[in-house]
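tool=predict chain=A
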Amino acid sequence: MSENTLMVGGQAVIEGVMMRTPQMVAVACRRADGTINVWRKPYRTLLARFRILALPLFRGAVVLLEALALGIQALTYSGDLFEHDQSAAGNGTVAGPKSSPGARTRGQKLRMAFTMIFAFGIGIAIFFYIPLLLTEWLGARTSFWFNLVDGVIRLVFFLAYIALISQMKDIRRVFEYHGAEHKSIFNHEAKTDLTPENSATYSRFHPRCGTSFLLIVMLVSIIVFMFLGKPENVSERLLRLAFIPLIGGISYELIRLSGRGFGNPVWDFFIAPGLWLQRLTTREPDLSQLEVAIVALRAALGEEVEALPNVVVEGDEELAVETA
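tool=predict ok
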């Protein structure tokens, strides 16, 4: 794989897919009337603006934060479209291809910000702080055993969380689009014609998937925290949060290497757990979902998608649904 190939990434959203390249970010969502809404804008990563951030270990933390910010915005965009279509259906009407909800008010944006902060707080408590308390309760004494048990508990929590949400109907639908994202990227990497039929022939398990990345983060954190010893008080527990950028940086370099080594028997052995975990976070998509993923990918690659059947393109400086 070339470096350019490695820079194509994506994320499943509500009834759609977000795709990102070094030059463009695009979101494509299927509307209730069957049309595909596309939002896109030019994108320039901080890695291209500040060379020091592109150095190994630094770049991983930057990419992680950028992906998180864009992912939240893309989910908000798709959620607004979905909510608007649901509301229109409840009123006995069908939202048209250019029908979008208005921009969010200041109050709505503040409520969303507080919701996100609360959600992150809950995430830190469940996947970071509670495992520490449980490890202390289990009586792990030495630094090695404490950090190993703590890491295993975090890993169990993570796997249980994935298994639980995978049973939800709405989440399964998102996971189908996750599979469509992977298949279309494989289609692109193989340099074959981007069509739903071609994409359907590829695997839904991709070595650079965010699921695999999170699994690597869990494993790398065990090793990094080994060097910090056993935390004896609250401040030492919270100090571990400061090492998350380092953990993310190391994990990013490993996920890049896994993408390059995919197909090599040695690398495939190490990649296998992440691919296995994707059996929970991806589902086989249908051709209509693959079509949405391909439209998002074409838009992110800078292709003109306006002329495609049933495609409506919109865009602005902010990732928000504007009144048509």
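The chain is about 60% helix and 10% strand. The chain has one domain: 3-314.
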